[in-house]
Amino acid sequence: MTVEEMPMQEVASILSLADRLDGVPPAVKAGLLAGRKIALLFYESSTRTRTSFELAAKSLGATTTLVSDKSSSIEKGESLKDTGLTLRALGAECIILRHPASGAPFVLERACGLPVLNAGDGMHQHPSQALLDVRTILQRLHLAGRPVEANLLAGCTVAITGDIRHSRVARSNGMLLPRLGAKVLLCGPVELLPEEAASLGQEVEIVRDFESALARAQVVMMLRIQRERLAGLEFDLAAYIDRYQLTQERLARLAPNAVVLHPGPMIRGLEIEDEVADGPQSAIEQQVTNGIALREALLLRALGVEL
Ligand code: CP
Hints:
alpha/beta, Rossmann fold, 5-stranded parallel sheet, 4-stranded parallel sheet, 12 helices, 9 strands, 14% strand, globular, binds phosphoric acid mono(formamide)ester
């Protein structure tokens, strides 16, 4: 399910479960998925998503196994379907999948009949990232614990800046944040932000000038230039840095109270300056930490366990 299709009640329930899980003693938590088996199937590299899903599963008492495209029979040509069936035959009850092809989690779920959690599929969606981003925004704006409904983020403007064209994070956030009442400004040069991106929704607007976007934003989400997906694209990196880097000077002048987010990995000195990444407005480490409870909640729901 994409975040666009996810009922608001489900979004609310996941966020509330993540909040409650933060208060559950580790010994109690460790019994919730004791004896259950979860497979992590990663066809693309990952640090945050893979590690937080794995730590989340382990903190709930599950046994995990990692299958990576680099060190498995996928290298020998085994298909996604056969890999899924193999994991099921080995006892996996849920698969966490990162894959370069859009829609791969849906294909795998149909093929193996197990719940599949999307850990990022191509340039399509990254639902757990968008949910943890919302969790972080609510905490930083002192809205955590309020009823999650269509106007929760009314009056909040989020400027998502950078390589929108290739970003599943931008797509998922661009769908989820307006459903909670936020205005989303997409900001970047035309090579990285095609005009069609505005079709994400009525509350999504393209603003080419970074400084204008910053001046309107309560939240600034910076994105990495995805060099691995730039094949054939002419791109002037120096001009990009000049126009779109989130510098301390820009932040202090235009958005001195804004919350700074980045899904990672960051390329310091390219889209963001060190002083901003490590500064008081940065919620980047908080995003990472929030990923654990959020993914614990997703795992409990996938395996039908109530708290
Ligand atoms: N945010 C994110 O998906 O980071 P990783 O690629 O390190 O998992």
